[in-house]
Write a structure and sequence with these properties.
Layout: E1 3-4, H1 7-19, H2 69-76, H3 90-95, H4 106-118, H5 123-134, H6 136-144, H7 164-168, H8 173-176, E2 206-209, H9 217-223, E3 226-229, H10 236-243, E4 244-250, E5 256-265, H11 266-271, H12 281-285, E6 293-294, E7 303-304, H13 317-325, H14 327-330, H15 336-351, E8 354-364, E9 367-376, E10 390-399, E11 405-409, E12 423-424, E13 427-428, E14 434-435, E15 443-444, E16 446-449, E17 455-456, E18 464-468, E19 500-507, E20 513-524, H16 528-534, H17 541-552, E21 558-569
Parallel strand pairs: 2-3, 14-19
Antiparallel strand pairs: 1-13, 4-5, 6-7, 8-9, 9-19, 10-11, 10-15, 10-20, 12-13, 16-17, 16-18, 20-21
Helix pairs in contact: 4-5, 4-17, 5-6, 13-15
Length: about 575
């Protein structure tokens, strides 16, 4: 039985969202809101040429506390791995990652604009929360200068704003390398972007690194930062400050109720897994070189080892592809080749994150019964991070002789929707222990609920999870906090354990003959339901642009793993 919300609730919720005013524009054309008849999606006839190109940002900027990424590239690009001769330039690799493009990610910008429109009374809260980790240098510098911390209108995204360059340089070198090792790092008090940047100036600004006895002269002379050893640069707690995010909750009465919602808890998932003892975030997402690296092309700096490459590999090939194909429109600094390398690294990384295996197969009286084991090899849930992400099983049984399909669960239709899956404002797909109908699909995903227990895609309305059956990491501890525990039917599934999930499939009334079972595990950054909900705000420039970009890309999901098996029905 699928978990369905009533149509009446859906209509009321839609009315509430459409009734909210406010919102902002980044200044790109069409500016403000795009007007169109209510029954006509306002962006149906829009093309990329209807939006202005982003104003290029100066990656060589300097501010009181920060320095642009290109200033760092002067010394830290053009370096190689002595083990294989590979170019491991720091800024070059970073520029093609989601970290290097966090501020121009069009899905992020569209979602923030949508959240502001739906919750106009909390515009300042939303923009401050969302810019803290996506535009951190601008956020910090504005705070030091007592300037407004805003994104839209005259805010950070406006080329006339004094913090525009700092904002557009995203999560850059002198941000991460200035985060202090405070007692709060890796704790609740340090989550949600509560990192600390010292209010130092000139050479008093410390650039923390993982190597002892750094040679200070070259960096002081080039960019007026003083390199300083600090062990925390190799620790997962450094990443926790932005990758554990608790968002404030707006209740049904339209007020902040003082609670928070774990929009993502990647660090906590890792903390309560076996990986806590064996691998840090940096070990996986910043892979080590084969040999040592002379980390600076200037200043006669000696070789260093181990060296973590600044590839910041994640799971978002979808957005990297969009950034690559729309570099000028979005204002990306990396060239096509850099993005292609980042996409290739990410795709390989994803394929190593999980796999599927067909287990025991039983046939009797025209019935085919088989199990599918899904294993998570990553150090956190699979998938993790933003609640727009999901993975699912596509299972198909065909007649071997002519490939006639006798059973299929999890296929995509031409609109990009998983056939049989409830992924809209009316409901969601439950977690299954056993599947015996084509309309049932195993989807690994988080589903949010508001303070009234109604399903929502609006982050600021989210108060808890209705469903969270993302596959737990190996060794997941039973004493983990509620923020990361499974919710819904998965919580009572004895086969849903740390490191894996097992699903049983049963297909009845199969004629005798030879058959082939195909099982595929897919992953998606932006689920169909999440995007359809976002598009209800397509009158906003940011959302309209995202819809056009999504329509123009072919990369909507990734295939993680496949398995097949032959079987004879007697």
């Amino acid at each position: 039985m699928k978990a369905l919300l009533s149509l009446i609730i859906s209509i009321v919720f839609l009315f509430f969202v459409s009734a909210c005013g406010g919102g902002g524009s980044s200044g790109s054309a069409p500016s403000g809101e795009i007007t169109a008849p209510v029954d006509t999606p306002p962006d149906d006839n829009l093309a990329l040429d209807d939006f202005e190109d982003a104003v290029p940002h100066d990656t060589s900027f300097t501010s009181a506390h920060f320095s642009g990424s290109q200033n760092c590239a002067q010394c830290h690009d053009g370096i190689t791995d002595t083990g294989n001769g590979k170019d491991v330039s720091l800024v070059k690799a970073w520029s093609g990652t989601m970290m290097g493009n966090a501020a121009i990610d069009p899905l992020y910008l569209a979602k923030v604009a949508s959240e502001v429109k739906r919750n106009p009374d909390f515009k300042e809260v939303i923009e401050a929360k969302c810019s803290r980790c996506h535009m951190p240098m601008a956020h910090v510098e504005a705070g030091f200068a007592d300037d407004a911390v805003v994104m839209f209108g005259d805010g950070f995204l406006n080329p006339e704003n004094p913090h525009y360059y700092a904002a557009k340089d995203s999560v850059s070198c002198t941000l991460c390398h200035q985060i202090k090792d405070t007692p709060q790092l890796g704790t609740v008090e340090g989550y949600s972007g509560k990192f600390v940047i010292a209010e130092n100036f000139g050479t008093d600004r410390k650039s923390y690194g993982q190597y002892t006895n750094p040679k200070t002269g070259p960096m002081i002379n080039s960019v007026a930062f003083t390199p300083t050893y600090s062990a925390h640069m190799d620790k997962s707690k450094l990443c926790a400050t932005c990758h554990n995010l608790n968002t404030p909750v707006i209740d049904a009465q339209g007020s902040l109720n003082g609670d928070t919602f774990p929009e993502q808890a990647v660090y906590t998932e890792w903390e309560y897994s076996d990986f806590n003892r064996t691998k840090s975030c940096q070990d996986c997402h910043m892979p080590q070189t084969e040999g040592s690296v002379v980390i600076s092309s200037r200043g006669n700096v000696g070789p260093r080892s181990p060296f973590h490459q600044h590839q910041f590999i994640g799971a978002n090939t979808y957005m990297l592809e969009i950034l690559k194909n729309n570099r000028i429109k979005l204002g990306a600094a990396a060239d096509t080749a850099i993005f292609e390398e980042s996409i290739s690294n990410t795709r390989d990384f994803l394929k190593a994150a999980a796999d599927v295996t067909i287990g025991s197969i039983i046939t009797a009286n025209g019935t085919l019964n088989f199990s599918v084991l899904v294993r998570n090899h990553s150090g956190h849930k699979f998938p993790t991070s933003l609640p727009s992400r999901r993975a699912w099983l596509h299972v198909k049984v065909t007649k071997t002789s002519d490939q006639t399909v006798v059973f299929e669960s999890g296929a995509l239709n031409s609109e990009g929707q998983i056939i049989g899956v409830d992924d809209n404002a009316e409901g969601y797909e439950e977690h299954y222990k056993k599947i015996d109908e084509s309309s049932e699909v195993q989807v690994y995903e988080p589903i949010m609920a508001d303070t009234d227990g109604k399903m929502t895609y609006t982050f600021m309305k989210a108060a808890r999870y209705l469903k969270d059956n993302r596959i737990l990491p190996l060794g997941f501890k039973s004493n983990a906090p509620d923020d990361v525990k499974p919710y819904g039917e998965a919580a009572d599934d004895s086969d849903f354990v740390g490191g894996s999930d097992t699903v049983v499939y049963e297909v009845d009334n199969i004629p005798s003959g030879d058959y082939t079972i195909f099982v595929t595990l897919h992953y998606q950054t932006a689920s169909y339901g999440f995007m359809q909900d976002l598009y209800r705000d397509a009158a906003l420039t940011e959302v309209a642009l995202m819809k056009v970009l999504n329509r123009n890309t072919q990369n909507h999901y990734e295939t993680i793993s496949t398995d097949s098996a032959s079987v004879t029905i007697p």
